[in-house]
Amino acid sequence: MADEAQTGVRYRRRIASIAVQVGLIVLIGGLVYAAAYNAAHNLARAHIASGFGFWNNTAGFDISQTLIPYSAAASTFGRAFWVGLLNTLLVAAIGIVLATVLGFAVGIARLSRNWLVARLAAGYVEVIRNVPLLLQLLFWYNAVLKSLPEVQGSVALPGGGFLNNRGLFLPRPEFASGFSAVLAAFLAGVFAVIVLRLWARRRQERTGAEIHMFWPALALLCALPIIAAAVTGAPLTFSPLHMGRFNVRGGIEILPEFAALTLALTTYTAAFIAEVVRAGVLSVSAGQTEAAQALGLRSGATLRLVIVPQAMRVIIPPLTSQYLNLIKNSSLAVAIGYPDLVQVFAGTVLNITGQAVEVVAITMAVYLAISLFASALMNLYARTTSVVEH
Amino acid sequence: MKRLATALAFATVLAFGMQAASAQTLTTIKNRGELICGANGTLAGFGLPDPQGNWTGFDVDFCRAIAAAIFNDPTKVKFVPLTAKDRFTALQSGEIDVLSRNTTWTLSRDTSLGLDFVAVTYYDGQGFMVRRALKVNSALELNGAAVCVQQGTTSELNLADYFRANQMQLKTVTFATGDEARKAYESGRCDAYTTDSSGLYGERQKLAVPGDHIVLPEIISKEPLTPAVRHGDSQWTDIVRWTHFAMVDAEELGVTKANVDEKLKSDDPETRRMLGAEGQYGEALGLTNDWVYRIVKHVGNYGEVFERNIGQGSPLKIVRGLNALWTKGGLQYGPPFR
Q1: Does residue A233 fall inside a structural domain?
Q2: Do the domains at B21-123+225-328 and B126-221 have one common CATH topology?
Q3: What is the DSSP-derived secondary structure letter of residue A302?
Q4: CATH, residue A118
Q5: Distance, in angstroms, between A249 CA and closest chain B CA?
Q6: How far are the Cα atoms of A108, A292, A293, B254 from residue A300, in angstroms, in the given order?
Q7: Which residues contact A325 (CB under 8 A, 6 or more apart)?
Q8: At what angle do helices B234-252 and B25-32 cross, to 10 degrees?
């Protein structure tokens, strides 16, 4: 008897719960649909163009840095979107790598026993964290621009490059047909290094003998491509630059806007990563350090082999947030004229087509996709460092 | 269930969200007690607050004329500074009533943005400014130059077209605002700065040594600068359009700020109709019959506004040129008051 009553009540509660959830989904879905319908209707009534037809219209404007071929006359707004997106991804990728390196260095430096090093690192973190990023970006942009010479007084670099306040101009590499052999040799070298390291580690686990692989690995990585280059007859040449009337002609151009944005994002995010790393290292119990020292490991090896691998479990989630912050902060490129996605697409294209709703929606969706992808990657990596409970 | 939710939501929005567009703007402005005008905020001579915070400029005076016509008080205007990027969105969304911000009238803007352009207040064209030390005398010598331009303007598009048409190589450097573009030009980041020719004179005044820079003679495009209003309110469009024509006609008939009281007693039939001494033309627009008298008394006629802000009475010293009256060889032509 009691059983039946229990089942009856539980059953009714479950039905009610499901009904409420379904009702809520329907209501929210209905609101979203009504809002979208209303927006489309209002746009049509106000004779504002809507729809995504603008994607295939000719752009008509130039972009100062394009990683893929682009021309004002022939390229479409869609192409401009891809150019902006690639510029954003370039800044984000380089920024993430540099910020991680710098952040780890500063974070561990702050924990150093050397008083000066620790204080310098602390000072760096405190100053950089507390100044708004936009101000730092403008500082770097003006500092970078003001410190470089004008075009007439360009600094000539060894190897044929030029440095002035329009950018860093490097000779463009020309790849002859034999270059694929050099590339193959380099990849073979990388593969060989990986195999050698695995072999060395196996050897160490079996016999305890530690084999230092650093110099042999370096030799392999350098020697193989050089041999291949010598055999195929130096297939890499550089086309020279020459000074035009206004600017340097030819070659690869690295914009000062790009340099300023990368510097600002790197230093800013590194300060936050430093604190995350410090928290991670402090989270590893002191017993680990004591045990490592009891075994005779020096502090450098302790850090590298014992502390940091354990600290990574704590470091990775906040580190993911910092990476996502860096990716989104790259949109401040608008302030200095670097042609990233927001500047090109949500700026110029929005203004020319006037279709604010579609353009902003696409931009938001793209940033969301990038961030979700980055955090998915980081979560995958986090799984390798997580503790497996048995 | 879904349809009910949709219908419910739609009806709610219908009840509160949609309203007839015609004849709403003037009523809204009168109830609010002031006109909200979208202006530049950084362009000397056209729309710029002075050190005391009072807005001055050619486009600013146009908005003051509209306010004078509605409220008999040219100070009943609130100015909203807008960049080239957000000017159209501000007008579309209803944040401002009229956009008077050196905006070029183009086909795509007229059709796909939901705006109406009223009447050309300033016939302009795009030009280049370079450093005198570069010894460049013509825009055709700018092959390979880096040019600073403001993003999202017709200047950016015309620049690319011009260089392509003349088979010249171009390096564009775009910035969100005119101020940033000018600062980058001044710091040597680019060789030339391009915008509407009227803007070039204004921006040159802001440089450290204006005399070190010259404006090249080529005008590479047509830039008819026109105030804009939202599509769909014909009465408001008429008011804004005829404010401009009233100021042009006032100059043509010789009515100035100084002599408008005396001209009110004039015998000339067109002057009498314009100033409201006879006829109901003001009421036909939704304003009072003395609306042109109010405009000229408080702000002045077209020529006075021009000379005071960008002409010989200002540091810019732009000549009338295309903006002279049609009787003096220019393009400013007001339909008759009849």
Answers
A1: no
A2: yes
A3: I
A4: 1.10.3720.10
A5: 8
A6: 11, 11, 11, 89
A7: A269, A272
A8: 80
Q: Which residues of B touch A28 (CB under 8 A)?
A: none
Domain count, chain A: 2
Name every chain B residue with its beta carbon within 8 A of the beta carbon of A33: 6
> Residue B19 in 3-state DSSP?
coil
Which CATH number applies to B126-221? 3.40.190.10
Least CB–CB distance from A27: residue in B5, B108, B142: B5
Give me the residues paired with residue B39 across strands: B81
How is residue B328 written in tokens? 């003096």
| Co-location of A273 and A363 in the same domain | yes
Q: Are residues A276 and A366 in the same domain?
A: yes
Domain boundaries, chain B: 21-123+225-328, 126-221
Asked if residue B251 lies in contact with residue B305, where contact means CB atoms within 8 angstroms, the answer is no
Residue A100 lies in a domain: yes
3-state helix, strand, coil in chain B (%, to 5): 45, 20, 40
Residue with tokens 């043509």: B252
Domain that holds residue A8: 2-48
As assigned by CATH, the class of the B21-123+225-328 domain is alpha beta
Tens place of pLDDT for every residue, chain B, 338 residues? 555 555 455 545 444 444 444 568 999 999 999 999 999 988 888 999 999 989 999 999 999 999 999 999 999 999 999 988 789 989 988 899 999 999 999 998 898 888 999 999 999 999 999 999 889 999 999 988 999 998 878 898 899 999 989 999 888 888 888 888 888 898 888 899 999 998 898 888 888 898 899 999 889 999 999 999 998 899 999 999 999 999 999 999 999 999 999 999 989 999 999 998 888 999 999 999 999 999 999 999 999 999 999 999 998 888 898 999 999 999 999 999 88
Q: Do A61 and B160 touch (CB under 8 A)?
A: yes
ipTM surpassing 0.90:
no
